[in-house]
User: What shape does this take?
Amino acid sequence: MGKYLAMIRMRFLMMLAYRTDYYTGILIYSINIGAYYFLWNAIYGEKAPSKDFQVCR
Assistant: This one.
């Protein structure tokens, strides 16, 4: 019975590690998107579009 409990425990720890890696990846990806947004907003946020540029609506 001890062998089975050890296998179940190891499987649970592996599953937990992969879940943590998944959620950490989502968090880091979201931080990167936010950083790029604020970076480009700081660079181009105050500038008016050039006179040759038209926004299609």
